[in-house]
Amino acid sequence: MINFPETALLRLRQILGDRNANPPVAPIIPVSRSAWWAGVKTGTYPQPVKLSPRITVWRASDVFAIVTPHEKLGTKRSHRFSA
Predict the structure, then answer these.
(1) Which residues contact 65 (CB under 8 A, 6 or more apart)?
(2) For the chain, which has fewer Cβ within 10 Å, the N-terminal or C-terminal residue?
(3) Structure confidence at residue 5 (pLDDT)
(4) H or E element: which one contains 56?
(5) 10: closest CA among 39, 46, 42?
(6) pLDDT class for 1, splitting at 50, 70, 90?
């Protein structure tokens, strides 16, 4: 996985991966686009930041808060993000 600074902003294809990119981008969170947006709506995933009408990003610190060492060890840890 690529290391991003905590203050970085991530586009959706950086979070979900892009197999068609050259070179391919590995997913940080391997879910579909529709599952991601449903999770954003329910609060499972963090709220986006709109930079312009066509550019949506997420704070890297919020995204990486989901991917914790606790989950890699098999323990469940629930994250809810509020608007």
Answers:
(1) 46, 79
(2) C
(3) 81
(4) strand 55-59
(5) 46
(6) low
pLDDT at 78 over 60: no
Residues 6+ apart with CB under 8 A from 11: 55, 56, 57
Q: Which residues pair with 10 in a beta bridge?
A: 58
At 20, list the tokens.
């068609």
For residue 58, give the amino acid letter: W
Domain ranges of the chain: 9-72
pTM: 0.78
Are residues 49 and 59 in contact, defined by beta-carbon separation less than 8 angstroms?
Answer: yes
pLDDT in tens, 5-58: 878 999 999 999 999 999 999 999 999 999 999 999 999 999 999 999 999 999
**Residue tagged 């914790």 (tokens):** 68
**46 in helix, strand or coil?**
coil
Cα separation values, 30 from 19, 33, 37, 53, Å: 12, 9, 13, 26
